[in-house]
Design a protein that fits this description.
alpha+beta; Double Stranded RNA Binding Domain; four-stranded antiparallel sheet; 31% helix; 25% strand
């Protein structure tokens, strides 16, 4: 990767939405201009897409828990370089807000990740809330599907890529799981991407982007596996990539359960997270009650 100092003059946005002000709000995001971002690294992937990684200044960083996953505070992937940069900055701001506020946000679940956080550099907080709700929906739906409380609508496979579509009872969204087999040690390792959106096409596109991120994580693992000391989330990543994990996932996909009405989950947190990051973008957090999924931290539970 190469270090990139960004100067924002153009008015390109990372969504086709006139309310996106990334070009303006992120103009002084670099620490040299008094902002929280110390460094942005950008590289072009073999697919032609760009990956951007944003690193917060040391004053805004928290402790890192990951070895396989990127050590960047925020990352973004897109066909457009500037869009990838904007996405990575937004995610870094989410992490900044999470690390500053998570101890003050009391919930009945383990609050060890930035799940349900979203940042959007717009006029209003509505778009940030939309993205936060989508992520919270994705997290709840995957657990409900894994525990056979809901059934997927469709599952189709093309070459080594499988796509599972689940109609989420919460927020009327589609949750998509993409799974792809990659050659590894004479066999195959399986990677995954997840996303939720009210628009099925958008949900699929975002799941494929997450799949690309998983592929990059796996490439990092292959280069450094002998020296890595991984955490629970990363153990899940490796377990469900293994032959045993693939079989467990396949068994759930193939299992048909009776269609039944599922009670909509309770949204236990749905608020803007206000702080010094708000001058750059609105941060919102949504969380559904996950207490019924008590086994979700186990290594062989499909939630990561």
């Amino acid at each position: 990767m190469v270090a990139l100092t960004i100067v924002f003059y153009e008015t390109k946005t990372y969504e086709k939405n006139i309310m996106n002000l990334a070009f303006l709000k992120y103009a002084n995001i670099h620490s040299s201009s008094g902002g929280p971002i110390k460094e942005i690294l950008v590289r072009q992937l073999p697919s032609g897409e760009f990956e951007a990684q944003s690193h917060l200044d040391v004053h805004f960083k928290g402790e890192y828990f990951y070895k396989i996953y990127s050590s960047a505070d925020g990352s973004g992937i897109d066909k457009n370089k500037r869009t990838a940069v904007y996405k990575s900055i937004s995610e870094a701001l989410e992490r900044w807000a999470f690390r500053s506020k998570h101890k003050q946000i009391s919930t009945n679940i383990e609050d060890l990740s930035s799940d349900g956080y979203a940042c959007y550099p717009g006029f209003f907080s509505k778009s940030a809330k939309k993205h936060a709700l989508a992520e919270a929906t994705e997290r709840w739906t995957i657990c409900a599907w894994w525990e056979e409380k809901i059934q997927h609508e469709t599952c189709f496979t093309e070459a080594n890529l499988s796509t599972i579509v689940i109609s989420s009872p919460c927020a009327q969204m589609y949750t998509v799981i993409c799974a792809e087999k990659i050659p590894y040690n004479g066999d195959y390792f399986q990677i995954y991407g997840f996303a939720a959106d009210a628009d099925l096409k958008q949900s699929k596109q975002r799941a494929l982007i997450e799949l690309t991120r998983s592929k990059l994580n796996f490439e990092h693992f292959k280069k450094n596996e002998s020296s890595l000391h991984i955490n629970t989330i990363e153990k899940k990543f490796l377990y469900f990539g293994s032959i045993e994990g693939q079989q467990s996932f396949s068994k759930r996909v193939q299992k048909k359960i009776p269609i039944k009405k599922v009670k909509e989950p309770i949204l236990i947190y749905d608020k803007e997270v206000v702080g010094p990051w708000t001058k750059y973008g609105f941060v919102w957090r949504c969380l559904f009650d996950m207490s019924e999924f008590s086994d979700r931290n186990k290594e062989n539970y499909f939630f990561f």
